[in-house]
What does this fold into?
Amino acid sequence: MTRGARRLHAEPVAIVAAGVITPLGADLDAFWSGLLTGVDGISPIERFRVDDLRVGRGGEIKKLPSVSDGVGCRASRLLLAAAADLRSRATLDAPGDRIAVVVGTALGGVEEGERALADDRGPRRAAAARYDRPAHALARALGADGPVLTVSTACASGATALGLGADLLRDDRADLVVAGGFDVLCRFVMRGFDALRSLTRDRVRPFDRRRSGLLLGEAAALVLLGREPDVRGDRLGRLLGHGSASDASHVAAPDPDGRGLEYSARTAMAQAGIAAGDVDFVSAHGTGTPLNDRIESGVLRRVLGHRAEAVPVNSIKGALGHTMGAAATLEAIMCLLASRHGAIPPTAGFEEPDPACGLDYVPRAPRRQRPRISVSTSAGFGGCNATLVLEGEPAR
Amino acid sequence: MKGARVAGVGLVTGWGDGVAALPADAARAAGSRRVIAVARPTLIGDRFRRATRECVLGVAAVNALLRAVGDTADTIAGTDTALVYATAGAYGAANRAFIEVTPGAASTLHFPYTAPSAVPAEVAIEFGLRGDYAILLGGVSATQEALWHAATLLGRGACTRALVLAVETFEECADLYARGRWLVRWPLVEAAACALVVAGEATAPAPDVVVRARAGETGACAPLIGFALALAEGAVPAP
It folds into this structure.
């Protein structure tokens, strides 16, 4: 049994604005409307060879905005596109040396590494293979001269990045933090998940009785964080808590009892100073794999207690695929947009309930509900787990 | 950071075990060698047969730490211990092995080891570490941020101790480093280091990272080697 969390309460941090690029569209509005209207972000992959793989579909972004033209590395281009969207919604109103960048990624510049080992023998390509290069490219583009951190807690990276970004503000190491996550859909990762037999030939069906695996996607998602008292005007909401934990169980599979995920959820809620009764909505990791969804549902049942079946739980991975390092940030943004617009996106692909999961997974249509407090759970290779607690804010 | 100190460092480098193995002048000791590699440590257990060399080096560094501070593995198991891992490029060898494997021969076991998270995962599994967890990528600055994060977690009461682990391997990608040879400081010295950060008053500030002359280019391990040298001189440094 996982012991209770004892993390001391931490000051909330304001989430001022967000910017994204996803398979559903090239900005925040397209992302949100796509989730609500059921746009399918999954398509045949066109950018690289997939004819030798079992599955050749994914959440591929077909066209990148021109803002990133001239940047060679696709990972950096995604980040710059998300940053452009963010900057269209908020101003980075602080000296450069007081602006920090914290981004999470599972794959970094690995596609550049593939090219460096294949046909490009130049030094630049090899250097671009480093996983921390895209974060530095983003910082340069933003004029951010403060701390630049690259987080890689696998598919929980986008949550860990927000947690660390909040700590940079609390510790007065920055006045503004651009935090988030990214990853590209490339042959390296498609081959890997194909070899693991994790990819489905069906559609992604989180929490559905017929679920048979995940599909991958690519995206970048960024938020602008600021100290609560310093932020004037409109904001998306607040980050109330962050928790992380290791499963210490298996290098690829989740802990059978979900101990790490449960510990991360309990520590995040303790940091936020909330109880199970305060939770209005859960954005689940919800990959659509048989194991993850059952284990995660069990964790949520324990954490939420007698209210578990009354709290709506969704997964957006059926709509755009598993966007790896970007996923947790996208899901956090989705939580805040749900509060703002009074609607919870449905779990695309969920049609037939699985008794082994057994929660309210928001089937078929958006739920007209305005959650105030949301919990967003994430997990990844290596037994990485991270949970965020968010408070949304209706539009002023 | 106020209220935190580095209580010990476990260190394995291409020069040998601990700071005593470091040469006085790395460049001179390396001679014409560009990479000073670490042999794969011998660890017993089925899990380690399929784990990568960098994973086993991470475990070896924690074992070295436990010997250095006189603790047992039981002491650090559970949710009271945070693990923060930093590396500049220890994932490179596994990535390359996966990219260059014969098409169709990719094993189902190999791919998860390409993730940077594989190294701390094996460490967490080996020692039963279930507390707060973070992985930072980059060189010296990543480790410095890892030390800051460890101190932050301690200060918040999120853990009673934190392990800051760094691992660097270079041998498998030496030709890639050589492509950008004007960007690389030779010799590249493989290393694994783990610092124990606990609450308490330090008597010295964090040491400057000036270990390159003695140890060579050790990437993210360099700050922890600096701590190991400071501890060897009797200091109680702050993270």
Chain B touches chain A through 57 residues (CB under 8 Å).
